[in-house]
Amino acid sequence: MKNWKRMNCCHLLNQRLIASFVVNMSRLNMYVFKIHIRICVSILQIVILQNLCFTKFIHLYLQNQKEQVTPRKLSRGQFWLKLEAEGTYQCTVTGLIFDVTKAAVIKYSVLSWSKYADYVKKPWIVGGPIFDVSCDSASVLTCIQFPHSLSLNDHESDMTFKVLHIKSTGPAIEPSVDHSMTHVKWHVSSLSPVGPVIQTQEPVHYNGAVILYKVVNNHPSLSFRVYVATNNDSFIKDISNAVKHSDKKFIKIDKPPVCKKQLQDGKRYRLISESEAEITPEEIEFVDGSLLKLKSYFEVYLEQPMEFTLSLIELESEEIVWKAKLRECDWILHDQNKNERKRNTISNRRRKSSNSLSDEEFYNKRLKDGTKAKTTLTDQQLMTLAKKMGKDWKEIGIECLKLEMKDIQQIQAKEEEVNVHKFLMLEKWRKGEKSNGTAQNLYDSLKDHVSYEIIQILEGFL
User: Fold this and answer.
1) What does pLDDT average to over the chain?
2) CB–CB of 46/38 below 8 Å?
3) CATH topology of domain 363-461
4) What is the Cα Rg of the chain in Å?
5) Are 107 and 128 in contact (CB under 8 A)?
6) End-to-end CA distance of the chain, in Å?
7) Which of 13, 82, 219, 302 gets the highest tally of CB atoms within 10 A of its CB?
8) pLDDT at 133 over 80
9) Max CA distance (Å), the chain
10) 408, 397 Cβ separation under 8 angstroms
11) What CATH class is the domain 67-199?
12) What SS3 class is residue 391?
């Protein structure tokens, strides 16, 4: 009996142990299961996050994909692009970026900020080149990104980016959509001259460029102009025009122009030469001269032709901002080619003249042509030219004929047909030039900016 009781107790104890073991194993399994669930959820969250990041990365990557396109250059200084389909396209020459919703033809040109200086008032300053853009279907061109000449670095948060839009109704400061380290994005409201402007309380840092020109003459000495500019197409175009219209003749010396350190507004810089040279002025205080009609420069003079090195130094830090070595071959080859072309031209003219005209006839023709070229243009001739001008006549008036925006606005205020407006613009130029309102003078002003057809008409007036 006692043995039976003992066996019964053992059996009950075993049952309890087994039940306890089963319960504990169940709890353990539930705990492990929960851990497994948590691990799976964490892995799933990581996968989802990775997918979201990857999707965002792909979206940003596709957003930043821009097809590089090279424009055709027209005779009047304009660029011409034919875009075949919807997309984002970047001009390889100017850096402009266009967003279009379908195929489009876009024309654009770099303008001078100095013509619109009255409209850039403090605290606003120029941020990059100003462009005149037109499109065959304005609604197709949705956004334009303008290159800026600023070095942002840590100063980006202190700046406000907008654009100056020169409308037919007058100038307006319009908001930008976005900006990057290189561009300011603007949603197209209408097509007319537009350029980026900024507002900041901090000193402005610019991406700089140094542009070199050599005086062409018969003297053995060397004379150069050295321009220190922002890397801004409008500024650089102004320099080119200033050199072109100078009383002296120049050739551009091709050296790497980009400064290896940013130029800072208000800081002083000195140009030095390793060879003995006269440099005037000795130093300059840098300012962005985009709005100025007259651009400042260093004049470098060497009595004897030789190789020499020029360096631009920031006075405060004594760091070299830009450096270039100039060699005789940089300008001798140009002079040789120029002389060769001149000899060929003179030879061809002499050959043609001797075959077609006697000496007396040739002299009389030159005398007559000279008198004709000095005659002031008539109203009839101005109207002939006016009828051939395109939609860019206002820009031509401001950029080439030195008229002000207010002159154009006064002309447009008159309720006349557009060809009459063009004629009145030409007439105002003629009045301003007085006795110099000649075909030759107008030809010299327009030759790089108007169509081949207008050039032919002007040549017929000479």
Assistant:
1) 81
2) no
3) Death Domain, Fas (1.10.533)
4) 35
5) no
6) 145
7) 302
8) yes
9) 161
10) yes
11) mainly beta
12) coil
